[in-house]
């Protein structure tokens, strides 16, 4: 009944026109039963006019709504006044009324900001569809063991994903790919296959020496042409190690040593020259390889190793995982539509993206992430792959800046049927086709390592927006920072890397994660003894606090004794607790700044330690409920970050996998790593002969002739 008089007047007029008072009261009661005349509505003039018709509330208990309505208006206006007089709220004459209430001013709620590589700024995170977040993350190219560079990206994204899902309560749909078709995989599979065949032939010492010398010739040319100082140093090291291993075998042959003594030197040389010989064998015999099964066995094996490494690191599995080999039909259709839209062209069985045509379009722009890198031929050729940058391939392009969507397969390469002849997908197209198939024309977040920005992610953006004819395929691009090893650049191609399995032999998954949490996810992280020592000390610091709180809670107390009177110390500690929670929330809103969060958590624990020490000094028991609340909060935050993976109600679980990981070793089909930096302890594929690691000093000294 309350509200605007214009809306209610017609109902009142019909009621007020009833001459019989009892009937009028009954009609008013029925009308009021459908109206709210108490909660939050202002009075209308129609209410006042009806009110004046009554001198007292009706005595009939069945007219409940009229009686309550009458008392409500009487409390506001006083007793009914004469007709025609305007109504007003008046001071109660002996009657108390509720005073007017106003809500508090409050504070502006903190909103999540994420560093968006598309703008190079922190932007307010606004998903496209309510709380649902669609997220695509570039997965690994599985041709070798996962290393700490992979851990840098996937632990960091796991932390971000957990924070968005478990702290900010977004509904995250997380998709990741596995690249199991790629130039690196093809080359490595052929090298492993050809080197295995070479070993099966058991070459004589003289033949091995001859082959090594033949392999050194193109290797020396490559070394002389290399300008990158790091790569040149790596090649020089390989050359030096091969030469050191060659000399003892040459002397052993010249000295006519026994078969066992010669074989010992042969094994050393085979180990040191494995990369050299494999590359040489592939360059001479790679095009003759016809066993296509090797191109699937290798990535299948290393994918399994990758998943086991992620599980050991407590990285959550993706909601959906896509493999390039399973999406070839979708990739072909994706490429065809890009061609149909005018942004791709066929050349000699391959299909290329026309960057000039795309960039000249009014609704598109090329190089959104790193515009200053457009035209960087070194980066572009690295993106095309070692098998795709021959002179004949490069001449097929209209512009050097164009990149392959689909590659015509050469002899010795896997192939799939398509409208342009047998071929295989380019590297960049795979993510566009798979993400587009699952997430549609626009996703909220795309993630990857910092080094993928150009050309990989810029090319992904271009070809996807060419396919969907839009300009918003990705809303937020997140890139994790580089990883260095003791200050040096980490690079698999430079053989300067540490595998995840090797890292887990030295430190637990929790310790590695704490090290990552203590640094910004988007900045460079140095994996060094100092970094890990800081993580170990932080873990020890927290663990001692949790153990102290558990010890306090272990003391027997009756049900009422668990609630103790608070003094100034407790009030002060509780104020600090809430201040720290606010600071932690603000840090998480600020680009998920876990570094600041960890500092605030450390400060909170320090305050708790001071409080417990002060209570102990005066022989008083600390307030168990307050300390338990703080410890539970810290435990909750560490669980959100994935630093506590077990079901632990408070603190780190005793003897859990986070502190003493048991690295499982799996045996199965796959392929050997060609890295001469180390012989990995995990399984090698069936049929590959493991060469025992020996040094040149292990060879018998050559006798004088």
UniProtKB/TrEMBL annotation:
<dbReference type="InterPro" id="IPR036282">
    <property type="entry name" value="Glutathione-S-Trfase_C_sf"/>
</dbReference>
<keyword id="KW-0436">Ligase</keyword>
<dbReference type="InterPro" id="IPR015803">
    <property type="entry name" value="Cys-tRNA-ligase"/>
</dbReference>
<keyword id="KW-0067">ATP-binding</keyword>
<dbReference type="GO" id="GO:0005524">
    <property type="term" value="F:ATP binding"/>
</dbReference>
<feature type="domain" description="tRNA synthetases class I catalytic">
    <location>
        <begin position="127"/>
        <end position="535"/>
    </location>
</feature>
<comment type="function">
    <text>Catalyzes the ATP-dependent ligation of cysteine to tRNA(Cys).</text>
</comment>
<comment type="subunit">
    <text>Homodimer.</text>
</comment>
<keyword id="KW-0862">Zinc</keyword>
<protein>
    <recommendedName>
        <fullName>Cysteine--tRNA ligase, cytoplasmic</fullName>
        <ecNumber>6.1.1.16</ecNumber>
    </recommendedName>
</protein>
<keyword id="KW-0479">Metal-binding</keyword>
<keyword id="KW-0030">Aminoacyl-tRNA synthetase</keyword>
<dbReference type="Pfam" id="PF01406">
    <property type="entry name" value="tRNA-synt_1e"/>
</dbReference>
<keyword id="KW-0648">Protein biosynthesis</keyword>
<keyword id="KW-0963">Cytoplasm</keyword>
<dbReference type="GO" id="GO:0046872">
    <property type="term" value="F:metal ion binding"/>
</dbReference>
<dbReference type="GO" id="GO:0004817">
    <property type="term" value="F:cysteine-tRNA ligase activity"/>
</dbReference>
<dbReference type="InterPro" id="IPR014729">
    <property type="entry name" value="Rossmann-like_a/b/a_fold"/>
</dbReference>
<dbReference type="InterPro" id="IPR032678">
    <property type="entry name" value="tRNA-synt_1_cat_dom"/>
</dbReference>
<dbReference type="GO" id="GO:0005737">
    <property type="term" value="C:cytoplasm"/>
</dbReference>
<keyword id="KW-0547">Nucleotide-binding</keyword>
<dbReference type="InterPro" id="IPR024909">
    <property type="entry name" value="Cys-tRNA/MSH_ligase"/>
</dbReference>
<dbReference type="GO" id="GO:0006423">
    <property type="term" value="P:cysteinyl-tRNA aminoacylation"/>
</dbReference>
């Amino acid at each position: 009944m309350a509200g605007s008089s214009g809306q209610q007047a017609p109902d009142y007029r019909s009621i007020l026109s009833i001459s019989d008072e009892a009937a009028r009261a009954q009609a008013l009661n029925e009308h009021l039963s459908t109206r709210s005349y108490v909660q939050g509505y202002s009075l209308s003039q129609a209410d006042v006019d009806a009110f004046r018709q009554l001198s007292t509330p009706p005595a009939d208990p069945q007219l409940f709504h009229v009686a309550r309505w009458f008392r409500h208006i009487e409390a506001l206006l006083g007793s009914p006044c004469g007709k025609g007089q305007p109504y007003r709220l008046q001071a109660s004459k002996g009657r108390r009324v509720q005073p007017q209430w106003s809500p508090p001013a409050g504070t502006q709620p903190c909103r999540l900001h994420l560093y968006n590589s598309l703008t190079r700024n922190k932007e307010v995170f606004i998903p496209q569809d309510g709380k649902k977040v669609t997220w695509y993350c570039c997965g690994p190219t599985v041709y070798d063991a996962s290393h700490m560079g992979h851990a840098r990206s996937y632990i960091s994204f796991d932390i971000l994903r957990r924070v968005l899902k478990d702290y900010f309560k977004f509904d995250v749909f997380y998709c990741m790919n596995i690249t199991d078709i790629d130039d690196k995989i093809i080359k490595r599979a052929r090298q492993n296959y050809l080197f295995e065949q070479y070993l099966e032939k058991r070459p004589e010492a003289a033949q091995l020496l001859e082959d090594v010398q033949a392999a050194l010739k193109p290797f020396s040319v490559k070394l002389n042409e290399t300008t990158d100082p790091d790569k040149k140093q790596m090649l020089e090291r390989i050359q030096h190690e091969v030469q050191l291993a060659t000399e003892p075998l040459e002397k052993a042959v010249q000295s006519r040593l026994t078969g066992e003594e010669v074989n010992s030197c042969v094994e050393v040389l085979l180990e040191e020259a494995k990369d050299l010989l494999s590359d040489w064998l592939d360059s001479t015999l790679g095009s003759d390889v016809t066993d296509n099964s090797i191109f699937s066995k290798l990535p299948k094996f290393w994918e399994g190793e990758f998943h086991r490494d992620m599980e050991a690191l407590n990285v959550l599995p993706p909601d959906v995982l896509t493999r390039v080999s399973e999406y070839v039909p979708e990739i072909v259709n994706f490429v065809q539509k890009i061609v149909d839209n005018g942004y791709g062209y066929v050349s000699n069985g391959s299909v290329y993206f026309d960057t000039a045509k795309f960039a000249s379009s009014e609704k598109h722009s090329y190089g959104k992430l790193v515009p200053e890198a457009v035209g960087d031929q070194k980066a572009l050729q690295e993106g095309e792959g070692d098998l795709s940058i021959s002179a004949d391939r490069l001449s097929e392009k209209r512009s050097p800046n164009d990149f392959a969507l689909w590659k015509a397969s050469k002899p010795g390469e896997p192939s799939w049927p398509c409208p342009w002849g047998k071929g295989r997908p380019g590297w960049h197209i795979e993510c566009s086709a798979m993400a587009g198939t699952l997430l549609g024309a626009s996703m909220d977040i795309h993630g990857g390592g910092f080094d993928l920005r150009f050309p990989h992610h810029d090319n992904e953006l271009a070809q996807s927006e060419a396919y969907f004819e839009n300009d918003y395929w990705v809303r937020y691009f997140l890139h994790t920072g580089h990883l260095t090893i003791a200050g040096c650049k980490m690079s698999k191609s430079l053989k300067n890397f540490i595998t995840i399995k090797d890292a887990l032999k030295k430190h637990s998954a929790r310790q590695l994660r704490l090290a990552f949490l203590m640094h910004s996810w988007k900045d460079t992280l140095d994996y060094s003894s100092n970094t890990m020592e800081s993580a170990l000390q932080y873990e020890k610091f927290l663990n001692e606090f949790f153990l102290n709180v558990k010890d306090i809670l272990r003391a027997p107390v009756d049900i009422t004794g668990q609630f103790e009177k608070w003094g100034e110390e407790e009030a002060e500690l509780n104020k600090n607790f809430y201040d720290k929670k606010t600071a932690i929330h603000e840090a998480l809103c600020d680009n998920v700044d876990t570094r600041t969060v960890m500092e605030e958590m450390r400060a909170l624990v320090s305050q708790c330690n001071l409080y417990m020490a002060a209570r102990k000094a005066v022989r008083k028991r600390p307030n168990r409920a307050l300390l338990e609340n703080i410890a539970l909060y810290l435990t909750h935050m560490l669980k959100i970050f994935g630093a506590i993976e077990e079901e632990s109600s408070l603190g780190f679980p005793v003897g859990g996998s986070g502190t003493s990981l048991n690295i499982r070793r799996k045996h199965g089909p796959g392929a050997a790593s060609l890295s001469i930096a180390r012989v990995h302890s995990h399984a090698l594929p069936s049929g590959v002969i493991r060469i025992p690691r020996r040094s040149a000093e292990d060879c018998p000294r050559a006798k004088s002739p």
